[in-house]
Write a structure and sequence with these properties.
- With 287 residues, the chain is of the alpha+beta class.
- The chain has helices at 11-20, 31-39, 46-50, 93-107, 134-142, 225-239, 261-270; strands at 2-5, 56-61, 67-76, 81-88, 112-114, 128-129, 146-157, 174-178, 183-189, 195-202, 208-216, 244-250, 274-284.
- It has two domains: 2-150 and 279-284, 3-Layer(aba) Sandwich (Aminopeptidase), CATH 3.40.630; 162-271, Gcn5-related N-acetyltransferase (GNAT) (Aminopeptidase, 3-Layer(aba) Sandwich), CATH 3.40.630.
- Helix 4 packs across helix 5 (134-142).
- Residues 166-170 have low confidence and may be disordered.
Length: 287
Amino acid sequence: MRIRPYRAEDQDAVLALIADDRLTGQPETTAAMLTEALAGYSPTESDQWAALDVPRTAVAHDPAGRVLGAASYTTRSSDQEGFVLWLHSGEDLPVASALIDAALADLGPRTVHAFAFASALSLGLQGLPVRSRPATRKALESVGFSGRDQCSYLHRHLRELPHVPESRTYPIADVQTSDQPPGRQLYLRDTDGALIGEAALGEPVDGIGVLQWIEIGAAHRGRGLGGNLLTQCCDLLAGNGGHELIAYLPEDPPRDSRLDQPAAGHLLATQGFEEIDTLCTFTRGPV
Protein backbone atom coordinates (compact mmCIF):
# COMPACT_ATOMS: atom_id res chain seq x y z
CA MET A 1 0.00 0.00 0.00
CA ARG A 2 1.25 3.46 -0.93
CA ILE A 3 0.18 7.03 -0.18
CA ARG A 4 0.15 9.82 -2.77
CA PRO A 5 -1.61 13.15 -3.32
CA TYR A 6 -5.19 13.13 -4.57
CA ARG A 7 -5.68 13.41 -8.33
CA ALA A 8 -8.73 14.45 -10.32
CA GLU A 9 -9.10 10.92 -11.68
CA ASP A 10 -9.58 9.65 -8.10
CA GLN A 11 -12.95 11.37 -7.82
CA ASP A 12 -15.23 8.41 -8.55
CA ALA A 13 -13.31 6.04 -6.27
CA VAL A 14 -13.35 8.54 -3.40
CA LEU A 15 -17.06 9.22 -3.86
CA ALA A 16 -17.68 5.47 -3.67
CA LEU A 17 -15.75 5.28 -0.37
CA ILE A 18 -17.78 8.18 1.01
CA ALA A 19 -21.02 6.51 -0.09
CA ASP A 20 -20.06 3.34 1.79
CA ASP A 21 -19.90 5.38 5.02
CA ARG A 22 -23.12 7.35 4.45
CA LEU A 23 -25.40 7.44 7.49
CA THR A 24 -29.17 7.23 7.53
CA GLY A 25 -30.55 10.72 7.04
CA GLN A 26 -27.59 12.00 5.05
CA PRO A 27 -27.83 13.01 1.38
CA GLU A 28 -25.69 11.35 -1.26
CA THR A 29 -22.36 13.13 -1.58
CA THR A 30 -22.02 14.61 -5.06
CA ALA A 31 -18.97 15.53 -7.11
CA ALA A 32 -19.73 19.20 -6.39
CA MET A 33 -19.73 18.54 -2.63
CA LEU A 34 -16.39 16.73 -2.90
CA THR A 35 -14.95 19.63 -4.90
CA GLU A 36 -15.98 22.04 -2.13
CA ALA A 37 -14.44 19.82 0.54
CA LEU A 38 -11.17 19.50 -1.38
CA ALA A 39 -11.02 23.29 -1.70
CA GLY A 40 -11.58 23.79 2.03
CA TYR A 41 -15.11 25.16 1.91
CA SER A 42 -18.19 24.04 3.82
CA PRO A 43 -21.67 25.59 3.96
CA THR A 44 -21.73 24.57 7.63
CA GLU A 45 -19.33 26.38 9.99
CA SER A 46 -18.05 28.44 7.07
CA ASP A 47 -16.25 30.88 9.39
CA GLN A 48 -14.22 28.04 10.91
CA TRP A 49 -13.29 26.73 7.48
CA ALA A 50 -12.31 30.19 6.25
CA ALA A 51 -9.67 30.34 9.01
CA LEU A 52 -7.96 27.16 7.77
CA ASP A 53 -5.14 26.89 5.27
CA VAL A 54 -5.75 25.16 1.94
CA PRO A 55 -6.26 21.43 2.64
CA ARG A 56 -3.98 18.68 1.42
CA THR A 57 -5.69 15.45 0.43
CA ALA A 58 -3.95 12.09 0.22
CA VAL A 59 -5.10 8.74 -1.11
CA ALA A 60 -3.97 5.23 -0.24
CA HIS A 61 -3.73 2.78 -3.13
CA ASP A 62 -2.71 -0.80 -3.74
CA PRO A 63 0.09 -1.92 -6.13
CA ALA A 64 -2.40 -1.99 -9.00
CA GLY A 65 -3.32 1.63 -8.36
CA ARG A 66 -6.77 0.94 -6.90
CA VAL A 67 -7.77 3.66 -4.43
CA LEU A 68 -8.34 2.21 -0.96
CA GLY A 69 -8.93 5.36 1.07
CA ALA A 70 -8.57 9.12 1.22
CA ALA A 71 -7.96 11.71 3.91
CA SER A 72 -7.86 15.50 3.91
CA TYR A 73 -5.91 17.56 6.43
CA THR A 74 -4.63 21.08 6.94
CA THR A 75 -3.25 23.65 9.37
CA ARG A 76 -4.54 26.88 10.88
CA SER A 77 -2.09 29.73 10.65
CA SER A 78 -3.52 31.65 13.61
CA ASP A 79 -2.42 29.04 16.17
CA GLN A 80 -0.40 26.55 14.07
CA GLU A 81 -2.69 23.67 15.01
CA GLY A 82 -3.43 20.85 12.59
CA PHE A 83 -6.67 19.23 11.50
CA VAL A 84 -7.59 15.89 9.98
CA LEU A 85 -10.73 17.13 8.26
CA TRP A 86 -12.19 13.91 6.90
CA LEU A 87 -11.15 10.35 6.16
CA HIS A 88 -12.79 7.44 4.36
CA SER A 89 -11.15 4.02 4.09
CA GLY A 90 -13.91 1.45 3.79
CA GLU A 91 -13.37 0.95 7.54
CA ASP A 92 -10.21 -0.98 6.76
CA LEU A 93 -7.98 -0.47 9.81
CA PRO A 94 -4.59 -0.70 8.03
CA VAL A 95 -5.76 1.78 5.39
CA ALA A 96 -7.12 4.22 7.98
CA SER A 97 -3.93 3.92 10.01
CA ALA A 98 -1.72 4.50 6.98
CA LEU A 99 -3.63 7.65 6.04
CA ILE A 100 -3.53 9.02 9.58
CA ASP A 101 0.20 8.27 9.85
CA ALA A 102 0.82 10.07 6.56
CA ALA A 103 -1.20 13.10 7.66
CA LEU A 104 0.62 13.31 11.01
CA ALA A 105 4.01 13.00 9.35
CA ASP A 106 3.16 15.83 6.98
CA LEU A 107 1.67 18.02 9.71
CA GLY A 108 4.68 17.60 11.98
CA PRO A 109 4.90 18.03 15.78
CA ARG A 110 1.85 20.10 16.69
CA THR A 111 -1.56 19.70 18.29
CA VAL A 112 -3.85 17.97 15.81
CA HIS A 113 -7.64 17.78 15.89
CA ALA A 114 -9.66 15.25 13.92
CA PHE A 115 -13.24 15.57 12.68
CA ALA A 116 -13.58 18.94 14.43
CA PHE A 117 -15.76 20.61 11.78
CA ALA A 118 -18.65 19.58 9.56
CA SER A 119 -17.37 19.27 6.00
CA ALA A 120 -19.13 19.81 2.69
CA LEU A 121 -19.36 16.02 2.34
CA SER A 122 -22.29 15.82 4.76
CA LEU A 123 -25.32 17.67 6.06
CA GLY A 124 -23.84 19.08 9.24
CA LEU A 125 -21.99 16.05 10.66
CA GLN A 126 -19.59 17.65 13.14
CA GLY A 127 -17.61 14.68 14.38
CA LEU A 128 -16.91 11.05 13.62
CA PRO A 129 -19.91 8.70 14.00
CA VAL A 130 -18.02 6.34 16.25
CA ARG A 131 -20.41 3.38 16.29
CA SER A 132 -20.51 3.28 12.50
CA ARG A 133 -16.78 3.94 12.08
CA PRO A 134 -15.00 1.70 14.63
CA ALA A 135 -11.87 1.15 12.55
CA THR A 136 -11.32 4.87 12.04
CA ARG A 137 -11.80 5.46 15.76
CA LYS A 138 -9.32 2.70 16.61
CA ALA A 139 -6.78 4.08 14.15
CA LEU A 140 -7.01 7.52 15.77
CA GLU A 141 -6.80 6.26 19.34
CA SER A 142 -3.88 3.96 18.54
CA VAL A 143 -1.68 6.97 17.76
CA GLY A 144 -2.69 9.02 20.80
CA PHE A 145 -5.87 10.82 19.84
CA SER A 146 -8.41 11.26 22.64
CA GLY A 147 -12.08 11.43 21.75
CA ARG A 148 -14.82 13.63 23.14
CA ASP A 149 -18.53 13.06 22.59
CA GLN A 150 -20.07 16.11 20.91
CA CYS A 151 -23.67 15.23 20.14
CA SER A 152 -26.24 12.58 19.39
CA TYR A 153 -27.26 12.30 15.75
CA LEU A 154 -31.02 11.70 15.46
CA HIS A 155 -33.29 10.86 12.53
CA ARG A 156 -36.96 10.53 11.73
CA HIS A 157 -39.05 9.91 8.59
CA LEU A 158 -41.81 12.50 8.36
CA ARG A 159 -44.44 9.94 7.45
CA GLU A 160 -43.86 8.19 10.77
CA LEU A 161 -44.14 11.23 13.02
CA PRO A 162 -46.94 10.87 15.58
CA HIS A 163 -49.94 13.09 15.09
CA VAL A 164 -50.02 15.85 17.67
CA PRO A 165 -53.34 17.66 18.17
CA GLU A 166 -53.18 21.41 17.76
CA SER A 167 -52.81 23.41 20.92
CA ARG A 168 -55.95 25.46 21.31
CA THR A 169 -54.02 28.27 22.96
CA TYR A 170 -51.09 28.66 20.57
CA PRO A 171 -51.93 26.74 17.37
CA ILE A 172 -49.93 28.66 14.77
CA ALA A 173 -46.28 29.72 14.74
CA ASP A 174 -45.01 32.83 13.00
CA VAL A 175 -42.62 31.75 10.24
CA GLN A 176 -39.73 33.89 9.04
CA THR A 177 -37.10 33.17 6.41
CA SER A 178 -33.45 33.12 7.48
CA ASP A 179 -30.37 33.43 5.29
CA GLN A 180 -27.63 32.21 7.66
CA PRO A 181 -28.14 29.35 7.76
CA PRO A 182 -30.74 29.11 4.98
CA GLY A 183 -34.08 27.95 6.31
CA ARG A 184 -37.02 29.01 8.43
CA GLN A 185 -37.45 30.33 11.96
CA LEU A 186 -40.70 29.46 13.75
CA TYR A 187 -41.91 31.49 16.73
CA LEU A 188 -44.73 30.69 19.16
CA ARG A 189 -46.04 33.74 20.98
CA ASP A 190 -48.37 34.38 23.88
CA THR A 191 -51.53 36.42 23.39
CA ASP A 192 -49.57 39.48 24.51
CA GLY A 193 -46.85 38.81 21.93
CA ALA A 194 -44.30 37.41 24.36
CA LEU A 195 -42.15 34.64 22.90
CA ILE A 196 -42.85 31.24 24.47
CA GLY A 197 -41.25 28.85 21.98
CA GLU A 198 -39.10 28.79 18.88
CA ALA A 199 -37.57 26.44 16.36
CA ALA A 200 -35.11 26.68 13.47
CA LEU A 201 -35.43 24.47 10.41
CA GLY A 202 -32.86 24.21 7.63
CA GLU A 203 -33.74 24.13 3.95
CA PRO A 204 -34.10 20.51 2.79
CA VAL A 205 -31.25 18.91 0.86
CA ASP A 206 -32.38 15.92 -1.21
CA GLY A 207 -35.57 15.93 0.85
CA ILE A 208 -33.71 15.97 4.18
CA GLY A 209 -34.16 18.84 6.63
CA VAL A 210 -32.17 19.69 9.76
CA LEU A 211 -33.97 20.65 12.95
CA GLN A 212 -31.36 23.12 14.11
CA TRP A 213 -33.15 24.29 17.23
CA ILE A 214 -36.37 23.76 19.18
CA GLU A 215 -37.20 25.19 22.58
CA ILE A 216 -40.28 25.86 24.71
CA GLY A 217 -39.95 28.24 27.64
CA ALA A 218 -39.78 26.41 30.96
CA ALA A 219 -42.97 28.05 32.25
CA HIS A 220 -44.96 26.78 29.26
CA ARG A 221 -43.92 23.14 29.16
CA GLY A 222 -46.19 20.19 29.82
CA ARG A 223 -48.99 21.51 27.61
CA GLY A 224 -48.09 19.80 24.35
CA LEU A 225 -46.61 22.93 22.82
CA GLY A 226 -43.28 21.30 21.99
CA GLY A 227 -44.95 18.51 20.06
CA ASN A 228 -47.23 21.02 18.39
CA LEU A 229 -44.29 23.17 17.30
CA LEU A 230 -42.39 20.14 16.02
CA THR A 231 -45.46 19.08 14.01
CA GLN A 232 -45.56 22.53 12.43
CA CYS A 233 -41.86 22.18 11.55
CA CYS A 234 -42.58 18.86 9.87
CA ASP A 235 -45.57 20.24 7.98
CA LEU A 236 -43.43 23.14 6.76
CA LEU A 237 -40.63 20.79 5.72
CA ALA A 238 -43.04 18.48 3.90
CA GLY A 239 -44.49 21.49 2.08
CA ASN A 240 -40.98 22.27 0.82
CA GLY A 241 -40.44 18.75 -0.50
CA GLY A 242 -38.88 17.22 2.60
CA HIS A 243 -39.46 13.64 3.72
CA GLU A 244 -36.81 13.14 6.42
CA LEU A 245 -35.73 15.18 9.43
CA ILE A 246 -32.46 14.99 11.33
CA ALA A 247 -31.31 16.68 14.53
CA TYR A 248 -28.07 17.10 16.44
CA LEU A 249 -28.48 17.04 20.22
CA PRO A 250 -25.35 18.37 21.99
CA GLU A 251 -23.97 16.24 24.80
CA ASP A 252 -22.72 19.28 26.72
CA PRO A 253 -24.15 22.59 25.41
CA PRO A 254 -22.01 25.71 26.00
CA ARG A 255 -22.77 27.61 29.18
CA ASP A 256 -24.15 30.54 27.21
CA SER A 257 -26.51 28.28 25.22
CA ARG A 258 -30.24 28.58 25.83
CA LEU A 259 -30.74 24.93 24.93
CA ASP A 260 -32.24 22.79 27.70
CA GLN A 261 -30.62 19.51 26.67
CA PRO A 262 -32.76 17.16 28.82
CA ALA A 263 -36.00 18.86 27.74
CA ALA A 264 -35.03 18.81 24.05
CA GLY A 265 -33.94 15.18 24.29
CA HIS A 266 -37.22 14.18 25.93
CA LEU A 267 -39.23 15.99 23.27
CA LEU A 268 -37.39 14.35 20.38
CA ALA A 269 -37.62 10.91 22.00
CA THR A 270 -41.38 11.22 22.52
CA GLN A 271 -41.79 12.31 18.91
CA GLY A 272 -40.15 9.14 17.63
CA PHE A 273 -36.67 10.30 16.71
CA GLU A 274 -34.11 7.49 16.64
CA GLU A 275 -30.49 7.95 17.65
CA ILE A 276 -28.37 6.84 14.72
CA ASP A 277 -24.94 7.46 16.22
CA THR A 278 -22.82 9.55 18.56
CA LEU A 279 -20.52 12.11 16.95
CA CYS A 280 -17.07 12.53 18.50
CA THR A 281 -14.16 14.86 17.88
CA PHE A 282 -10.55 13.92 18.61
CA THR A 283 -7.41 15.74 19.74
CA ARG A 284 -3.75 14.70 19.92
CA GLY A 285 -1.08 16.80 21.59
CA PRO A 286 2.35 17.49 20.05
CA VAL A 287 4.58 14.43 19.90
